[in-house]
Amino acid sequence: MPVRTAVRELPLALRLLIVAQTASVFLTDTRFLPVKHNVGAFEVVAALISISTLIYFVTKNIPVRFHRVMLPLFLLVIAALLSSYKLMTAVPERQAFSLLSIVILMVSSVVLLVWYNLLLVRERNLDLFLRALTYAAAVAAVWVLMDSIASGGNISAAGPFKSRSHAGIYMHTAFWLVLVRANWPRGSRWERVVTYPILAILLYTISASGRRSVFFALAVGLLVLALGMFVSSAKAGRRVAMFVITSVGVLAGVYFIVSDFWEPAAFFKTRVGMVDERLNAFTATSVEDTDIDFVVLQRQGGVRAFKENPILGIGYGGFWESEYSEGHEMHSTPMRFVAELGIIGVLLYAWFTIEAIAAAYRAWRANMRGPYEAVSLILLVALVSLTVSYGYNRQMTDRTFWLLLPFAIAFETWSLRRRQGSRVPGPVKWRQPARVARTSARPIP
After folding, report:
1. If DSSP states are collapsed to H, E and C, what string results for the chain?
2. What pTM was estimated for this model as a whole?
């Protein structure tokens, strides 16, 4: 029988830092440095929690664990450094933004490693994170609503976010995590009930953002979640169906009812009618084929950059100020790697994405017909929906994704250990069975 090691409890300071970083993820309008990409409370708390975790793990002799999804991400950092060296030597004036982009990628990698290990110290840390994120997302969504009310229904009101686009992208990720919380087997009943109005206000915030790419990704996610009911147990299927119907009902209420008297809801109704333009822009080959020429011009610039620099791209963070750009940073995450890191970057990014979705799939398989079945299905659908969203949006600077991913892979680790009958995801020590002396087969007279 395996010897179970003692279940550790994180120090209070580390648990408070988990809550603090979860809350700071939505403060995208907080700036500590005058740079394009935000360096604010989230980055400061990330540094504090990383240093504190390192000290705690060293003093308690806790081994640092890695997940297979981290390897392509670490290789992406190396590729970005190599490409940046080429960029900075060829075009020195692009040095600052390229270095900042690499630092953000490195910080995201560290956050993934640190949070994955923190969530593996004790399974209840998953509960702590979900609870903190649910209430932080609720506060941020209410903040957006109150800001809109105070401004007389201004569609640009964004509360703690830098812009309404940020609100839509971040709340899209938060929506899936709160949906996980609503289906989490542990916790009190009243907390699960409270998630219903929280989910409703998150959906309102997403709708008021007017982000059509997020609308499409959310619709794809809800559709895949609905299809998942047919391969789930009856109990999990009922729970999933209830939340899909509730989500569609909330969005329909905003579209058909609230839009008659509230400007942000009317803006949502208008933008929904323009989703087909966004989809046409992805398939258009020239600016004459679409009304959104910005998307086509960015894609054409990315393709030109790839053709001229096919192996390692033009340099990570180099597209924004290059001759291939229209004066904007590349929005589409896959196209960014096509232009800035070439074939190497595209392959590494595809590997990273596949590993993330595969981890959620393994967790779903491990939890089928169990109490976490609905949770694992939602996490799998969340990563699929986010991948669709990042076809247009910037993934590497979406802080909520870098909290969802360590949660998903830590949940996978716990699920596999739970299925194997071990309570802790660490090395298992085995006692050797006592050696039995050989005896004669003859019966004792």
Report:
1. CEECCCCCCCCHHHHHHHHHHHHHCCCCCCCCCCCCCCCCHHHHHHHHHHHHHHHHHHHCCCCCCCCCCHHHHHHHHHHHHHHHHHHHHHCHHHHHHHHHHHHHHHHHHHHHHHHHHHHHHCCHHHHHHHHHHHHHHHHHHHHHHHHHHHCCCCCCCCCCCCCHHHHHHHHHHHHHHHHHHHCCCCCCHHHHHHHHHHHHHHHHHHHHHCCHHHHHHHHHHHHHHHHHHHHCCHHHHHHHHHHHHHHHHHHHHHHHCHHHCCHHHHHHHHHHCCHHHHHHHHHCCCHHHCCCHHHHHHHHHHHHHHHHCCCCCCCCCCCCCCCCCCCCCCCCHHHHHHHHHHHHHHHHHHHHHHHHHHHHHHHHHHCCCCCCHHHHHHHHHHHHHHHHHCCCCCCCCCCCHHHHHHHHHHHHHHHHHHHHCCCCCCCCEECCCCCCCCCCCCCCC
2. 0.88
